[in-house]
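C-alpha cells as discussed.
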C-alpha cells in the first residue's frame, strides 16, 4: 500500500458518497488523516468507519459548506483531531437541471451556493491558517483541489447554472494559484467523469457497471489523481485543470488569446469590425461543442 500521503491532513467535502467517498478511502489508504465532510451525517460516519476499518484515521464533520461561519468548524476539527491541515478537496455539489428559459431563481441560487460559495468558505478559512503559518516563519506545503466539470469547460445544454458555477470554479483556481503561491499553497482543479448520485440517473445506461472487465466509470478511477495532488510530490504543479475519467488523464487547454487584428494606432470603425472578425474566426481553433447541442 502506497504511503504517498503519510501524515497529510485533508478535508474532503461531500465525502459521504460518490467521488468524495472514493477520494476519502484512497487518501486514507495512502496514509492521510481525513476529515470527512458531509451534511448527511450517516453517510459521513459510514465513510469514516470504512477508513478506520482499513487501518486509517478519519473523523466526520457536518459543517454547512455554504455558511461561512459554520464552515470554519471543518478546519477547526482538522486542527483539533490531527493538529494540522495540509489540503482541502472541494468535491460537494448538486444539480438543478433546467433549460435556461425555465430556470428558477431558487435553482440558480442553490447551485451557485453549493458550488461557488461552497468552494469559497472552507478554503478561505484554510488559507487564513496557512497564511498565518507562513507569516510566523513556517513553510506550509498546502493544497487546494477544486472540482470543475466538462460542463464548466465547454457548457452543457440544460445546465446553465451548473456550467456557469463550474466555469467560475476553473477561473477561481487560476487566481488562487497565482495569489497563494507565496504562502506555500498550490491550487488545481479536476473535471471528473464518474458514476455518482448526480450522474447515474441521467447517464444510467452509459455509466452502468459492466458485467465483466474494466469499470470505466468507477469513481475510484479518479482517486489516484486526487491522492497525488494532495501529496507533497505535486509541489511543482499549480493553476491547472485536469480531466479524469476511466483510464484517461488530460490537462485542459484553457482560454488564451487567439488570432489578433490591429488597425494601426486608431480606433476601429463599426463597418470594419465584421471583416476583421471573419478573418480571425477563419484562423481560430473552434471551441468544443456544448454538451447536448447536437
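Sequence:
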Amino acid at each position: 500500500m502506497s504511503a504517498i500521503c503519510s501524515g497529510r491532513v485533508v478535508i474532503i467535502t461531500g465525502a459521504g458518497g460518490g467521488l468524495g467517498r472514493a477520494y476519502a478511502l484512497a487518501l486514507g489508504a495512502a496514509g492521510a488523516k481525513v476529515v470527512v465532510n458531509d451534511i448527511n451525517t450517516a453517510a459521513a460516519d459510514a465513510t469514516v468507519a470504512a477508513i478506520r476499518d482499513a487501518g486509517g484515521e478519519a473523523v466526520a464533520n457536518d459543517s454547512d459548506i455554504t455558511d461561512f461561519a459554520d464552515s470554519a468548524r471543518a478546519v477547526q476539527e482538522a486542527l483539533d483531531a490531527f493538529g494540522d491541515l495540509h489540503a482541502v478537496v472541494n468535491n460537494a455539489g448538486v444539480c438543478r437541471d433546467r433549460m435556461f428559459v425555465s430556470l428558477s431563481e431558487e435553482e440558480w441560487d442553490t447551485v451557485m451556493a453549493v458550488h461557488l460559495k461552497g468552494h469559497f468558505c472552507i478554503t478561505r478559512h484554510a488559507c487564513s491558517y496557512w497564511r498565518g503559518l507562513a507569516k510566523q516563519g513556517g513553510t506550509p506545503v498546502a493544497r487546494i483541489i477544486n472540482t470543475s466539470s466538462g460542463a464548466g469547460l465547454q457548457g452543457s445544454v440544460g445546465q446553465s447554472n451548473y456550467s456557469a458555477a463550474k466555469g467560475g470554479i476553473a477561473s477561481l483556481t487560476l487566481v488562487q494559484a497565482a495569489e497563494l503561491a507565496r504562502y506555500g499553497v498550490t491550487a488545481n482543479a479536476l473535471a471528473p467523469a464518474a458514476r455518482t448520485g448526480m450522474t447515474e440517473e441521467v447517464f444510467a445506461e452509459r455509466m452502468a457497471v459492466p458485467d465483466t472487465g474494466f469499470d470505466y466509470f468507477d469513481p475510484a478511477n479518479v482517486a489516484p489523481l486526487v491522492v497525488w495532488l494532495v501529496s507533497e510530490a505535486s509541489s511543482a504543479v499549480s493553476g491547472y485543470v485536469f480531466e479524469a475519467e476511466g483510464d484517461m488523464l488530460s490537462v485542459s487547454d484553457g482560454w488564451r488569446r487567439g488570432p489578433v487584428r490591429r488597425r494601426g494606432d486608431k480606433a476601429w470603425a463599426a463597418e470594419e469590425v465584421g471583416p476583421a472578425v471573419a478573418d480571425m474566426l477563419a484562423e481560430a481553433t473552434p471551441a468544443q461543442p456544448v454538451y447536448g447541442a447536437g
